[in-house]
Amino acid sequence: MEERIGILVFGAVFVDIKGYPFSLYRADGRNAGKVVKVHGGVSRNIVEDIANVELRPTFISVVDEDGIGEEVVQKLTRHKVNTRFIKRISGGLGTWLAIFDTEGELMGSISQRPDLSSLEEVIREEGDYLFSRCDSVIIEIDMDSKLLKLIFNLAEKYHKKVYAAVSNMSIALERRDLLKTTACIVCNQQEAGMLFSEEFENMGLEEKLSSLSSLVVKAQFPQMIMTLGSEGAIYAEQNGNAGHCKAKKVHVIDTAGAGDAFFAGVAMGLTYGKNLMEACEIGTKLAASVVGTSENVNPRYLPEELGLESLTE
Known about the structure:
This protein is 35% helix and 22% strand. The protein has helices spanning 42-51, 67-78, 119-133, 145-157, 169-172, 176-179, 189-196, 205-219, 258-271, 276-291; strands at residues 7-10, 14-21, 33-40, 58-60, 62-63, 87-88, 94-100, 106-112, 136-140, 162-165, 184-188, 223-227, 233-237, 242-245. Strand 7 (94-100) and strand 8 (106-112) form a beta hairpin. InterPro entries: Carboh/pur_kinase_PfkB_CS, PfkB_dom, Ribokinase-like.
């Protein structure tokens, strides 16, 4: 039976350490609460989100050689992620330390990224096989530039669309040339403000939409989505098409992972035949399902529940 590749996801795996205060959070004091550890990382979350819609993606990443690394791989495998190309190396896991307030909003974080340079070997040895068979490609645009160029060259060779997720906009700003060749960029309002040197937070919704549409055309980005939290998301395309997708009403428990689920929904929608508005609606539904729980990923859905053709056979 031919190996299924599905959506090809590149990126890092983190261990997320999250703190939740029992009462009002004080930045200058000691806060009683609970601390939990979960598997995280933008790309790891995204690949599990896709797998939870039964679409069987493939993950290209690194993990530690210890028990935690093996636990990550085993969990992804149980969720029907193709983990055959994950490398086990010393120091392969990153760490994200985050503190939330009682409303589930992120108050501050520190991250330590793992070294992904060993993935160059995987791409050089398996790249033609993977890219010739995949449905699309997802990358973290702030990965090492040498690694990104290898990925974009293979995507161009095999005519595969690349979707760019942002985990550190300060680094992503150095990749503006590559952003022009991605099929769609997804970032939040703060990140978009950094990307365009624009103060979106001081604008009304219609002004934000008009500004984003103009900036996307000028920057020659094919498609872009800017998430706005409780206001939903706005999107713009190079052809001038733009619009607004409303957020779902949900009781907020933990916002961590919601942006990754939104991105996963958008990438799935665009990969499997949806237009940008329809893809935004899928992303919005998945993000809402994450915000209402303490999990980093969306719960299980059947593809048909999101209007996607089943590709699990």
